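quick one, 301 residues, struct below
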Amino acid sequence: MKFAAIDIGSNAVRLLFGYVIETNHGPEFTKAELIRIPLRLGEDAFIHHRIGPMLEEKFINVMQAFKLLIDAYGAISYRACATSAMREAENAPAIIQKVADRCGLKIEIISGRIEAETIYANHVAEHLDPANAYLYIDVGGGSTELTLFHQNQTIASKSFDVGTIRWLHQMVSKEYWAAVKSWVRTVTAEHAPLVAIGSGGNINKIFKMLGRKENKPLTYTKLRELYDYLKAFTVEDRIRLLGLRPDRADVIVPAAKIFLSIMKHAQIEKIIVPQIGLSDGLIHQQYEAYKISRAANPHPL
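---
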């Protein structure tokens, strides 16, 4: 069974193709292909509160290309979800309508709460030590989603307007950041031992840079060491000497800072990085919806 998912983020847009194989031990999810385009919608949306004409046209062209690829892939279904940048852009509904008119692609603007729930839909914690409580930390360009859960039960979940692009443009006030840290301390205080689960392009890249093996946690100390190392380089040198993409080289440092701060205030020593995100959650949700539909109509004409 083939599915497709589009994650319209503040830093980049992603198209994920995935397939699901049903086995006696449950469904197996496999990523077939991931296409990432660094549009930086957040720079327009957060500063001007609208997507400018040039970026709008680029976005529409990318969505048209994605729709053609989805049709060629032969997916059972797809979902295209927009997050923080589109939530803030005043002209987002008009742009979404233009995309629908040109190529028939339907885009949903989802709330921070739904974004957090979709990331949680990856069910990563089901395969982890039930003795621990876990804090999902998803750091994007425009927002950070936090979900605390224990024994597969959500304890608390919240979305904050703290992201790497906002941080770069100094759009996160000290008062707001203090409120984020206070929330983290309050909700995690009674749930030790606590382990973090990190998602987002930056933590995935950090994980790879450190050469960590799959399913091996990353320590706070190692993350701090890499943060200090990266911070010592200019953005240009991160591109030239470290080989980072231009759209990654500037945001990776504030991303690491956000992860480190949340881990510090939650007293977390280790973070698991399963290389998943919103698009993976969308694939999981589509499969669950497909199962329900199939059960309701097992013999379609």
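The mean pLDDT is 93.
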